[in-house]
């Protein structure tokens, strides 16, 4: 393979997305396939995507393959556990070595939010990478990735950025982590689904549409959600003061309406505080473009 090319895979619960980047980070080829669950299914799905990329590029891809996957990832051991939606639970799965053996290339394995954080860092800085950035993934849950001084911050126990489990409401519902009133119970896709059940339509889309049409219940639910996201941003920003804050994850498919709602909530939280207002958190806010495969792009950068 030309040393300049890099390959990344984003293994999700429903699909595995793979791509090849050129030296400037432009996407040369992109392939997606349904993910089959379980260890054998994940490896087979990844191999199908990887082979299709090889065909699309028309040359061997023999550099390091970067892979992002949900769940708890031990980067040193190249192993994953608690990827429950992928049928990986119980013991550590040595996915890095399984993929390397199957595909015949070295593999770097990373948690998908961390991979997406690297992708967001590349996106946020034309011609280079943002050196201080918080990526807030609003999917089924709520979690953040951190790039500090140009390096991914995983934490001493891999728990850096687990902002979704900061309790903010003592009267709130019990979270799946066992605490009460966590940010994730207010500001996540599952919280939106509970607040605004919408059948086949994504709850975030349905809720924001209803709020836009003036439904007072929807406006209240949207504002509570937005205030929760803003609280997560405030905690993260006061802890590490990032250059930029990027919203991603399934709920960020909302795009600009999400950025506006969260920016408004940040402005309201800063209204009584000249200190908070001076930090201009709303002005640092970005949203990942809805068609941009941020986690697969970040996975490709893992191999560089
Ligand atoms: Zn929690």
Task: Give an account of the 3D structure.
The chain is of the alpha/beta class and 304 residues long. The protein has 2 domains: 6-105, ATPase, nucleotide binding domain (Nucleotidyltransferase, domain 5, 2-Layer Sandwich), CATH 3.30.420.40; 131-287, 2-Layer Sandwich (Nucleotidyltransferase, domain 5). Helices cover 37% and strands 20% of the residues. The protein has a 5-stranded mixed sheet. It has a 5-stranded mixed sheet with strand order 10-9-8-11-12, sandwiched between helices. A hairpin with a 4-residue loop joins strand 5 (72-74) and strand 6 (79-81). The longest helix has 25 residues, at 216-240. The chain starts with 5 loop residues before the first strand and ends with a helix. It binds zinc ion. Residues 165, 175, 177, 179, 182, 184 line the site of zinc ion. Zinc ion binds at residues 165, 175, 177, 179, 182, 184.
């Amino acid at each position: 393979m030309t040393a300049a090319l890099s390959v990344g895979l984003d293994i999700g619960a429903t699909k595995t997305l793979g791509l090849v980047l050129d030296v400037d980070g432009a996407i040369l080829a992109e392939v997606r396939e349904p993910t089959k669950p379980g260890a054998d299914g994940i490896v087979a799905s990844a191999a199908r995507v990887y082979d299709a990329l090889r065909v699309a590029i028309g040359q061997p891809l023999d550099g390091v393959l970067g892979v992002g996957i949900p769940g708890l990832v031990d980067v040193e051991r190249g192993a994953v556990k608690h990827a429950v939606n992928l049928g990986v639970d119980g013991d550590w799965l040595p996915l890095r070595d399984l993929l390397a053996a199957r595909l015949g290339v070295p593999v770097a394995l990373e948690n998908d939010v961390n991979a997406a954080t690297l992708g967001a860092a590349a996106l946020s800085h034309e011609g280079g990478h943002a050196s201080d950035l918080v990526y807030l993934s609003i999917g089924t849950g709520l979690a953040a990735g951190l790039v500090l001084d140009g390096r991914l911050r995983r934490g001493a126990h891999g728990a850096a950025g687990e902002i979704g489990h900061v309790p903010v409401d003592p009267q709130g519902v019990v979270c799946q982590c066992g605490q009460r009133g966590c940010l994730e119970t207010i500001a996540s896709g599952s919280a939106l689904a509970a607040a605004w059940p919408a059948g086949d339509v994504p709850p975030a889309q349905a809720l924001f549409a209803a709020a836009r049409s003036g439904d007072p219940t929807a406006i209240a639910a949207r504002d509570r959600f937005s205030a929760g996201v803003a609280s997560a941003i405030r905690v993260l920003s006061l802890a590490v003061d990032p250059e930029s804050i990027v919203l991603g994850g399934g709920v960020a498919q909302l795009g600009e309406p999400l950025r506006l709602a969260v920016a408004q909530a940040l402005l309201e939280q800063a209204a009584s505080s000249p200190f908070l207002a001076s930090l201009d958190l709303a002005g640092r806010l970005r949203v990942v473009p809805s068609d941009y495969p941020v986690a697969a792009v970040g996975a490709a950068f893992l191999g560089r």
